[in-house]
Every structure is written in C-alpha cells, then in structure tokens.
Amino acid sequence: MKFTIIVFLVLLSLPAFAGKYSGCEDPQYKAYVAKRLAFYEKSYKEHYDKALNELDDSPYENMGLSEKRRFLNSNIVLSARFDSKEVALKNINRIELIQEDMPFYIKSGDIPHLVNIARGWIALNEGDEEAAIGYLLDSTNTNGSPVLGSFGPDKTLIRVLYQQGHNDAVLEYLKSSELFWNTESAKSYIEVWRKMIKNNCAIQFQFYDTTSIKELGL
Questions:
Q1: Which of 30, 83, 158, 214 sits CB 3.0–4.6 Å from 87 for a disulfide?
Q2: Distance CA 212, CA 46 (A)
Q3: Predicted confidence pLDDT, tens digits, the chain (218 residues)
Q4: Would you say 18 and 212 are in contact if contact means Cβ atoms under 8 Å apart?
C-alpha cells in the first residue's frame, strides 16, 4: 500500500504534458505543426483577399492619409507575399513616401521593420534566400514601437527560412529583436524557440510553442 502511494505521488509530480510526443521527430507532432502552419497561410490569404475586396468599394487613391497608413501597415507584407513584384514594390514605395513626409517625432518604427520584411519576401519569392536573410536582419534596425514592443517582430518570414534550414539567421533575428521586444512573455517565447531550434523541432513561432515544448519533454 505504501509503495502504491509513493508511485502515485511520483506520477503526480511529472510534467502534465510529458510524453504526449516521443520527440521532435514524432510524425504526429510534425503533422500537427504542418496543419497549424497551413491554417496560418490560409488565414493570411483570406485576410488579404478581404482587404483587396474592400479596395473595390474604397480605392486607395480616395483614402485619407490615416486610412492609407492603416491599410499599408496591415497589408504591406501580405502584398509582398501574394502580389506581383511590381504591385508589391508600388506598395512599399507608397509607405516609404508616407514615412518620409511624417514629422520626425511621429515616425513609426514599424515601417522600416515591415518594409524590410516585405523586401525579404520579394527576394524569397524569387529564390534569393541570401538576400531574404539580409532583409530579415535589416528589419531589426528599428527604434521599435508600442506595437513591436507588445506583439514582437514579424514571424512569417522566419517560418519559411527556418524550414529551409537557415537556423543561424533565425537565431540572430530573435537575438536582435530583443532590443525592442523584451517583455517577460517575449523572453519566454524566445527561450522556447531557441530550445526548439537547438533540437531541430518543427516550430510555429506562435505562443502555442510554449505548450508544445512541454509536450515534447524538452
């Protein structure tokens, strides 16, 4: 009876998620992450399609300055991903012109980050992984912003570059991002991703990874 109680207490002390997956190579885990990544891609495309449909009712040229800023901030990276290079560069030029005309004291730290991520996507779509990495790292050369400080940098580009094996570039990006994204939750996410990269795990680069790392027993 005493032995049974001891075993029961030991089992209670084990991590709640330990053992769900056998490790990062577990086919079930890989399938789970692949399904989540496909869901994100579908959501991004649907979001951008909706934004383009709204342009039919309210063309960009008819928008006020604040509306143009909101539209471009929300869609500049999506344009780089899903539009032709010509259209994507046109939108990049639009947002850069808006930034140039803004007084220095209200210039957004988001824009240089988003523009470089967008240029990185254009390069990646053309098969130039090295150029994409260059733009990725350049995107962290920003003074930050309330949005970047709260929600962190773009994660879309590193998802693909990580899948292509550019682990060092992703790690450098995360390290540089700590200059403007350094909340307690940010530190937790980055530490989780570093551990997962070290173990060559499939990664969502989302908060769900904080659960996955426990389920993987890392």
A1: 83
A2: 27
A3: 333 333 333 333 333 444 589 999 999 999 999 999 999 999 999 999 999 999 988 999 999 998 999 999 999 999 999 999 999 999 999 999 998 887 776 678 899 999 999 999 999 999 999 999 999 999 999 988 999 999 999 999 999 999 999 999 999 999 999 999 999 999 999 999 999 999 999 999 999 999 999 999 99
A4: no
Nearest partner of 30 among 198, 196, 156, 207, judged by Cα: 196
Region of residue 203 (left: phi > 0; alpha: psi -120 to 50; beta: else): beta
Whole-Å CA distances, 113 to 73, 120, 128, 142, 154:
10, 11, 19, 6, 8
Report the pLDDT value the prediction gives residue 19, as an integer from 0 to 100.
57
Q: Are 173 and 137 in contact (CB under 8 A)?
A: yes
**CB neighbour list of residue 78: distance below 8 Å, 6 or more residues apart:** 44, 47, 48, 51
Spatial distance between the Cα atoms of 157 and 154, rounded to a whole number of angstroms: 7
What does each C-alpha distance from 207 to 49, 116, 132, 174, 204 come to in angstroms? 26, 24, 25, 15, 8
Q: How far, in Å, CA of 28 to CA of 35, rounded? A: 11
- Using CA atoms, how far apart are residues 218 and 200, in angstroms rounded to an integer? 12
Task: Tell me how far apart the alpha carbons of residues 79 and 47 are, in angstroms, rounded to a whole number.
Answer: 11
Q: Is 110 exposed, middle or buried (0-12, 13-18, 19+ CB in 10 A)?
A: buried
